[in-house]
Amino acid sequence: MIIVTGGAGCIGSAIIWALNKRGITDIILVDGVDNPEKKKNIASLSYFALEDKEIFLDRILNLSIPWSVDAIIHMGGCSSTIERDESFLTKNNYNYTKLLATYALNKGIRFIYASSAATYGSGKNGFSDETDLKILNPLNLYGHSKQEFDLWAKEQGVLDQIVGLKYFNVFGPGEYHKREMQSMIRRGFLQVLDSGKIRLFKSYNSDYGDGEQERDFLYVKDAVEMTLFFLDNLKIAGIFNAGTGIARTWNDLAVAVFKAMGKNTAIEYIDMPISIRDQFQYRTCAKIDKIRNAGFSQQIASLEEATTDYVQNYLFANKRLE
Questions:
Q1: Average pLDDT of the chain, as a whole number
Q2: Does position 63 have pLDDT exceeding 90, yes or no?
Q3: Which tens digits make up the pLDDT trace of 199-208?
């Protein structure tokens, strides 16, 4: 039996989709499915039971999980990089993860959890998953909440038993419920349908032109393969980056969206909200030597390949993975 928390979210539902493709349906899907878009994410998936996240937490606290569990893949929590409620983030991203990890460690259950590239902050200390965690300085509260658990795991000496994945900019089917946290590919697609243009933030860093800020954009299908690699290789543990290893610009992304839609490129640069200017990452790029050296050899889709698949096979039809 495999437990997937956040199982109705973008990465979580894609993990269950991939497990189903392997013929695995002994899955406990944990999430709060109160959003119609999240309900659509799981409508075609096969699983043993759907468990409300609060009820599941009570089971963990009372040590009363009624299933024989082989693995917990923990994708649940708050994924908003603009969340301002520190106590909310601490509860959902730190305390919840710590409780699940402790339970899994005590029961000998494989534990794989979502960390984040937001823990790297400005990137002045690089983007290596072999960097000393203590020198990282996230730019926002979300990043700090993820960093807190990474540090706890290190201090407890359990990183040789669990797996943390620092996901970079993941996009793909199943993100439609995320509102302002949707990827720029989805938002750009909708903007093109509405106005024929894509709006990108101006740069406030002289090292980068407008739209030339860089990100490591990772297709959700590849994020899932990286995740399940650690389900297949139980002896491998630690913190690993999940990215392409290639930084691309927002302009590159916009051009890829227009091309996938068969439209002429038209980009408008708009002011970045003052509230996020000091927390904006101008460049992220995963160093992926560690996961490659661990044995992950699958080819990773380019931004153009992934965007074409996403736009033409999912966004135009408003489809999910099925």
A1: 96
A2: no
A3: 999 999 999 9
Query: Encoding tokens for residue 258?
Result: 């227009």
Of 249, 224, 227, which is closest to residue 236 (Cα–Cα)?
Answer: 227
Contact of 252 with 141, CB cutoff 8 Å: no
105-152, pLDDT tens digit by residue? 999 999 999 999 999 998 999 999 999 999 999 999 999 999 999 999
Contact 284, 127 (CB under 8 A): yes
Strands (DSSP E) contained in 147-265 are: 163-167, 169-171, 198-201, 214-215, 217-219, 238-242, 248-249
Active site residues: 142, 178
Average pLDDT over residues 51-55: 93
SS3 for 43-77, per residue? Answer: CCCCCCEEECHHHHHHHHHCCCCCCCCCEEEECCC
Q: Which pLDDT tens digit goes with each residue over 162-188?
A: 999 999 999 999 999 998 899 999 999
* Residue 287 buriedness (CB in 10 A; 0-12 / 13-18 / 19+): middle
> How much is the pLDDT for 34?
85
Distance CA 203, CA 304 (A): 23
What is the rounded distance in angstroms from the CA atom of residue 286 to the CA atom of residue 140? 19
CB atoms within 10 A of CB 66: 8
CATH of range 2-172+216-245+286-301; options 3.30.365.10, 3.40.50.720, 3.40.50.620, 3.40.120.10: 3.40.50.720
